[in-house]
Amino acid sequence: METIIHKAETRGKANHGWLNTHHTFSFGSYTDPARMQFGMLRVLNDDIVSAGAGFGMHPHNNMEIVSIPLSGSLEHRDSMGNTTQVIRANEVQLMSAGNGILHSEYNHSKEEVVNFLQIWVLPKVKDVKPRYQQKLFDPADRINRIQTIVSPEKGDTLQINQEAYFSLGNLKAGFETNYKLHGDHHGVYVFVIEGEAEVAGEPLGRRDGIGVWETNEVTMRATGDAELLLIEVPMV
After folding, report:
1. Domain limits for position 204
2. Which of 18, 67, 98, 113 has its CA 20 to 30 A from that of 178?
3. Mind telling me which SUPFAM superfamilies this protein's record contains (predicted)?
4. What number of other Cβ atoms are within 10 A of residue 127's Cβ?
């Protein structure tokens, strides 16, 4: 088993006034050659956007982009004709940029900030037709369980153009579980959204992350109540 730990305070950060952001991996003006990506996981940004502010229309291509609101509401528009799509906590958005798309993201509220995770995964197949998906997930289904929200398969999850799996878990203090990886050459990046947990024997706190690979299974134990995001991706 191999591991790499990224403590919350070591993340890149930028405050643009309307946007306060932290970058687990190199992004924008933050560049660290040792933190370019984890396998096919390229970006994990923790964004706080002021009321009414946001990212104007801009292009993307050949990237799988997942947005997970933690609080507040996020408004999405794109060149595929999706206008004023709003996602809130417990909803997840997946945009396959494919051969090219324009989109914007704004805080839907004029009064409250929105805090969301924006995650980019490199695609399995390039230049596909762009797709947009969003789905509401029941938080009760992840209490002391691992709830899969994104996978390559059609069904109850959002479908991604990669052999990648996103999962959420709300684990009560003292609860322990094992996560089994789907592929021999996969790794999983575990991000502590809130609380405290021990992952692969390593103690982690709020907004800490750990990448684990060269194993088929990872043990996780909540040392306090813990909200976890798991991102499993091919490492090659």
Report:
1. 139-234
2. 67
3. RmlC-like cupins (SSF51182)
4. 10
| Under 8 Å between Cβ of 196 and 203 | yes
Structure tokens at 65: 């982009």
Question: What's residue 234's pLDDT?
Answer: 98
Predicted local distance difference test score (pLDDT) of residue 236? 87
Q: pLDDT digit string (tens) for 1-15?
A: 999 999 999 999 999
Asked if residue 83 and residue 23 are part of one domain, the reply reads yes
Q: What is the CATH number of the domain that holds 47?
A: 2.60.120.10
Answering whether pTM is above 0.90, one says yes
Number of domains within the chain: 2
Does the structure show a pLDDT above 90 at 81?
no
